Write the structure tokens for this entry.
Amino acid sequence: MAIVRWRTESNPFRELERLRGGIDRLFTEFGPGGETFFGRVYPAVNISEDGKNCYIRAELPGVNSEDLDVSFVDGSLVIRGERKIAPEKAGMSYHRRERQEGTFRRIISMPERVDPDKVSARLQNGVLTVTLPKAEEAKPRKISVKAS
Amino acid sequence: MTTKEMELKQKKELERGAGEPTRTGPVFVPSVDIFEDENEITVFADMPGVDSNNVDIDLRESTLTIYGRIERQEGEKEASVYREFNWGDYFRQFTISDVIDQGKITAKIDQGILRLTLPKAEKAKPRKIQVSTG
């Protein structure tokens, strides 16, 4: 029986890099924009962008603006709040109770530099839209190529 | 007071039967609360993204149909970077066993929540029957 010597890698991080490469490939193949990622924290968010702004949207039906706190801290957007379901009159009998109430807190770290002073939020038809204008240095710049 | 933390539940997609929708894209089953008292049946449905012009409510025979079309709020030039939920219309049907006073149905949508009140017709209301001793 041949004994194969355990091969020691000259670079111990090579395996780690290979793994990272695999994960990167997974993301470029299935995302972004293509696949839906199933998060674990309420509310679920969608992130999109155009040349000027990043947009974060979340479905928050029935959340009053007074019960919602949106803040931008240290490069991350924090969405906090509470969803309340008004107690109904006594003597009601329930057939279905599927809607839930409670508190929520979600932190989203922004992949791009944004201007924290210009972040705005709007709640329309139970959908929250946070508009985060990109910082000047993060905006795409066209570089003119001169022929010599 | 509620201190319970909310759990993330994925929106339930409608199982497609024989009827094929004309609009493309996913259709979701909205979460509802339904309760009744002796006068009326009240339905609350979570339909974020739907405004009052885009809800159809139909009560035919004993089938109540709720359909909500969403208004997409994204701009034309926006490109998706990361997505955890999909946008889609809402559809749900219920069978109502009580006799409903059709003319008095009221529906209101506010902050993405539909509130539907279905008043019971006179003859469907419970009547207390006096039992006399003879």
Notes: The two ends of chain A are 68 Å apart (CA to CA). The CA atoms of residues 19 and 25 of chain A lie 10 Å apart.
